[in-house]
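Title: Comparing notes on inverse folding

I've been comparing how different people in this forum approach sequence design from structure. To keep things fair, I'm posting one structure and asking everyone to reply with a full sequence. Here's the target:
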């Protein structure tokens, strides 16, 4: 199984990307599993916090390019990625992430929707959408300029510059940096601490924090997705993907 569900005590469920040989590159099947597991966790009264992690040397290296291109012509296949993003936006319970190594593309943008992110000091983020002839996704075109200003967001989203854990913390993408060996224990302690808080008050508080722009974020995600899909057939994207696959 490429997405593992690990049940920890005290109401914490971990969803672990488990495709370490591919640096946890996401396939269509993995997106389906993530959506199913998030919807299940949402409905389970005993689950108070969900923690996203990755096995092996990386958190998530983005989409599996070959799998992604195979499904790119099928709207239902493309739709599961957008559904995953909307599911993150609407998830009512605390959503945490423990990240390390490579976090590329959606491996970075999904963190924008987490309530707390703990990073290992070897984290390396990059959003190379434009480098691949595409456009930003995951609501990043709204959330990053809000957090950083247009100029710094341009560096990360348009130029696709890589950035490390310290820069991610300065961007507000990461709350805390620890050593790789401390990551799992620190993330679980954080998750248990949040799970111990009054449950209804936590969810109501999260709702208040997110309510002001939830509908706008859904609209932006859909618009990004339409542009992203149209760009897949562009000459620039086709050349970029061909070069990527040949290099791999």
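Reply #1:
Here's my take.
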């Amino acid at each position: 199984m490429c997405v593992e569900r690990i049940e920890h005590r005290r109401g914490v469920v971990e969803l672990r990307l488990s495709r370490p040989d591919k640096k946890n590159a996401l396939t269509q099947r993995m997106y389906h599993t993530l959506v199913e597991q998030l919807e299940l966790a949402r409905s389970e009264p005993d689950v108070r916090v969900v923690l996203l992690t990755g096995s092996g040397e990386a958190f998530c290296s983005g989409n599996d390019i070959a799998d992604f291109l195979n499904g790119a012509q099928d709207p239902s296949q493309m739709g599961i990625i957008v559904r995953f993003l909307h599911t993150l936006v609407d998830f009512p319970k605390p959503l945490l992430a423990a990240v390390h190594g490579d976090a590329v593309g959606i491996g970075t943008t999904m963190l924008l929707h987490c309530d707390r992110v703990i990073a290992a000091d070897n984290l390396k983020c990059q959003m190379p959408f434009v480098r691949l002839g595409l456009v930003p996704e995951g609501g990043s075109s709204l959330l990053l300029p809000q957090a950083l200003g247009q100029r710094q967001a341009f560096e990360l989203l348009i130029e696709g510059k890589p950035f490390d854990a310290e820069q991610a913390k300065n961007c507000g993408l990461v709350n805390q940096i620890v050593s790789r060996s401390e990551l799992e224990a620190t993330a679980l302690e954080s998750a248990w601490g949040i799970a111990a808080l009054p449950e209804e008050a936590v969810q109501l508080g999260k709702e208040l924090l997110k309510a002001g722009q939830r509908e706008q974020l859904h609209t932006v995600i859909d618009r990004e997705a339409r542009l992203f899909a149209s760009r897949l057939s562009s000459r620039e994207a086709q050349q970029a993907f061909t070069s990527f696959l040949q290099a791999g």
